[in-house]
């Protein structure tokens, strides 16, 4: 999930940063206008023009400066209402404009959009710094915070006050003038580096395409993979050929099924070399600069390293605690990899082809072992996993757990024709929000899957319902043909929908505390726990229908999936955990001058990384960490949250099963509806009655619990 939060701007921007405005043109800019239409207003995607972005952003920031000036310059004594609550009502124009901007930069990033991005990102960084370093504004926040215990506020208001105060302090509100200036300069420089990193990666994903021209090159590929590759080639003007794109959703099935070892190696090397080709799009130099700047900023802010700064307001609290959890799991994961490789090598040896298992062989031979050991062909499973049916399965499960109903809405503007919209209703038929779904890969869309909130839920200043979106990169099939996805992709679909449900369930007063605005190592908990409703018989029997026969997945096949649930966990956990460990180690290195390629190689060797598989995200393509601060020193969060999620799901299995109404209500009341109004650790205790137990995670993976 990618989420960026920009607070209201400050009137303290230096004259050199002042944004020139053409008042007449700005007033007419459609991107700045309040959203109109049904459901409390909807984004006017049909009015978006790339040439309007910069003017709209400049106008929005100028409007926020006026709003902030009014708060910071208020001569009345600071109160919760005239300072903290006043902040909650600022920046609404910016929120609207940036919704458009981030959709285009993430999913429709043409060369024109990328030029706008290069110009705008430093402005946004300066904008945020100017707020957080506004001395007059912070004095008012600090004054309210200091007397907060006597202010007669609600618990949610106390939490809101703490969140604002903490955010300002962590960003350097107490620094001296020169220190503030340097932090602001670092943030602007980082904004430019992040943009270049993501654009370089997008270029490698777009430009490196393997075109296959003969049936011989398709050996082993299932029909649906062939059809998707043919469609991708035709979309790129190469009708009659097959395109293997340089994205995970295209790479993964090719490496799993292609019998052409030479082509598997080529696809593998191309994919894992993204951002690391020694050319103009190489990201290693950018990473070196990013790490140095982050280390310098952390020192200025009073922290030992960037990792210590990033984790200071998380559940883990310190990098040491995060490392302790990761290293608790790492030995068991790598030991399982060695077992998996031994099984694959034994099978390969029976073929007498002289194959020694290499990274481009892992998925291919793992699939053969799975078929032999568990009588489970995941391509057979895929035949039951139609994207449209699984989407309906997600809706049904959400209805059982949270009382939601979903009705498709036609006629509203969308950013791309592939996007569809559903209205979400509650148990009493009341409007809850809108869900936008953008499922398919296309040029200019970043890889992966994520959730975004176009509009946050709030009840302050009037009831405002949320608008959320899920975004994927499935390869679109031929016209009229169902889109079949893998079991792993189906889990990801449910995962990202869990983020959407977190937003849709939100029932808080203030937008700053709404929905998914929780600590980084807690935000993945609702999404990861939602994955567990995919394999339930109730979902599989109703929605895992074969694309040809329409019959539900046989119980025997579902049982084989369950029996094989711990299969290839060595690969999956080690692939992820190696990325999380390198992320943390890079950011614990302080101001060291790091060669990213050498650092990755040396640290993986020290960890005992198995040679037969790579990190899930090699450093030069690690967008979570180097396209923004979001998951920097925070990729461990998926493990931290999964420990919580697995422990939480056991609460259902210990009770009446996955759809137990009492446990579902407790999950809603304690977690899904409360946003960031309560400390996450307390939220979980309220749900489970205790802190999470890591043994649930180890049991799920089939690892030793001792």
Automatic annotation (TrEMBL):
Residue ranges annotated for the Peptidase M3A/M3B catalytic domain, each copy included: 254-702
Cofactor info, note text: Binds 1 zinc ion.
PROSITE patterns noted in UniProt: TAT
CDD domains: M3A_DCP (cd06456)
Annotated GO biological process: proteolysis
Signal peptide, first to last residue: 1-25
GO-annotated molecular function: carboxypeptidase activity; metal ion binding; metalloendopeptidase activity
InterPro entries: M3A_DCP, MetalloPept_cat_dom_sf, Neurolysin/TOP_dom2, Pept_M3A_M3B, Pept_M3A_M3B_dom, TAT_signal
Family note: Belongs to the peptidase M3 family.
Protein name: Peptidase M3
């Amino acid at each position: 999930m990618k989420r960026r939060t920009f607070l209201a701007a400050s009137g303290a921007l230096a004259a050199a940063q002042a944004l020139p405005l053409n008042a007449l043109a700005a007033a007419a800019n459609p991107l700045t206008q309040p959203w109109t239409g049904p459901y409390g207003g909807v984004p006017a995607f049909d009015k978006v023009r790339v040439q309007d972005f910069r003017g709209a952003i400049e106008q929005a920031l100028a409007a926020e400066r006026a709003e902030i000036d009014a708060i910071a310059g208020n001569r009345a004594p600071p109160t919760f209402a005239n300072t903290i609550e006043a902040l909650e009502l600022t920046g609404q124009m910016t929120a609207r404009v940036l919704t458009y901007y981030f959709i285009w930069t993430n999913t429709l990033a043409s060369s024109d959009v990328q030029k706008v991005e290069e110009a705008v990102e430093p402005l946004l960084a300066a904008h945020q710094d100017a707020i957080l370093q506004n001395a007059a504004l912070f004095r008012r926040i600090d004054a309210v915070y200091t007397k907060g215990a006597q202010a007669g506020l609600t618990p949610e208001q106390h939490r809101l006050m703490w969140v604002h105060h903490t955010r300002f302090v962590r960003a350097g509100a107490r620094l001296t003038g020169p220190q503030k200036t340097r932090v602001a300069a670092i943030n602007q420089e980082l904004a430019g580096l992040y943009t270049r990193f993501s654009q370089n990666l997008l270029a490698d994903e777009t430009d490196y395409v393997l075109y296959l021209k003969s049936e011989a090159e398709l050996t082993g590929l299932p029909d649906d993979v062939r059809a998707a590759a043919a469609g991708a080639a035709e979309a790129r003007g190469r009708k009659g050929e097959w395109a293997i794109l340089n994205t995970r959703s295209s790479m993964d099935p090719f490496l799993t099924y292609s019998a052409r070892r030479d082509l598997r190696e080529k696809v593998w090397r191309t994919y894992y070399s993204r951002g690391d080709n020694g050319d103009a799009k190489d990201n290693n130099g950018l990473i070196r600069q990013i790490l140095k700047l982050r280390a310098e900023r952390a020192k200025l802010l009073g922290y030992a390293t960037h990792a210590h700064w990033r984790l200071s307001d998380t559940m883990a609290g310190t990098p040491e605690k995060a490392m302790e959890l990761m290293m608790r799991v790492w030995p068991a994961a790598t030991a399982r990899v060695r077992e998996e490789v031994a099984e694959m090598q034994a099978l390969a040896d029976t073929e007498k082809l002289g194959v020694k298992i290499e990274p481009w062989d892992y998925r291919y031979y793992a699939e053969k072992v799975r078929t032999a050991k568990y009588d489970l062909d995941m391509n057979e499973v895929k035949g039951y996993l139609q994207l449209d049916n699984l989407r309906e399965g997600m809706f049904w499960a959400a209805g059982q757990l949270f009382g939601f109903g979903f009705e498709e809405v036609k006629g509203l503007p969308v950013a791309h024709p592939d996007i569809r919209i559903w209205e979400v209703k509650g148990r009493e038929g009341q409007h809850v929000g809108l869900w936008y779904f953008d499922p398919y890969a296309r040029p200019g869309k970043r890889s992966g899957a994520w959730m975004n909130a176009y509009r946050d839920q709030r009840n302050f200043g009037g009831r405002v319902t949320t608008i959320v979106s899920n975004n994927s990169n499935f390869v679109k099939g031929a016209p009229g043909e169902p889109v079949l996805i893998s079991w792993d992709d189906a889990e990801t679909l449910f995962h990202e929908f869990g983020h959407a449900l977190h937003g849709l369930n939100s029932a808080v007063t203030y937008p700053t505390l709404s929905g998914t605005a929780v600590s980084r190592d807690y935000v993945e908990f609702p999404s990861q726990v939602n994955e567990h409703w995919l394999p339930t018989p109730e979902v599989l029997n109703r929605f895992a229908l074969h694309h040809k026969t329409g019959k539900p997945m046989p119980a025997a096949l579902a049982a084989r999936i369950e029996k094989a649930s711990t299969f290839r966990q060595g690969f999956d956990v080690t692939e992820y955990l190696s990325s999380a460990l390198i992320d943390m180690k890079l950011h614990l290195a302080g101001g060291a001058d790091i060669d990213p390629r050498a650092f990755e190689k040396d640290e993986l060797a020290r960890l005992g990384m198995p040679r037969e598989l790579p990190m899930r995200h090699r450093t030069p393509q690690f967008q979570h960490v180097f396209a923004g601060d979001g998951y920097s020193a925070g990729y461990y969060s998926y493990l931290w949250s999964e420990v919580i999620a697995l422990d939480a799901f056991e609460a259902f299995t210990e009770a009446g099963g996955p759809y137990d109404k009492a446990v579902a209500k407790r999950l809603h009341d304690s977690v899904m509806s409360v946003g960031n109004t309560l400390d996450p650790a307390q939220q979980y205790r309220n749900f489970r009655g205790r802190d999470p137990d890591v043994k649930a995670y180890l049991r799920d993976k089939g690892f030793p619990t001792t």
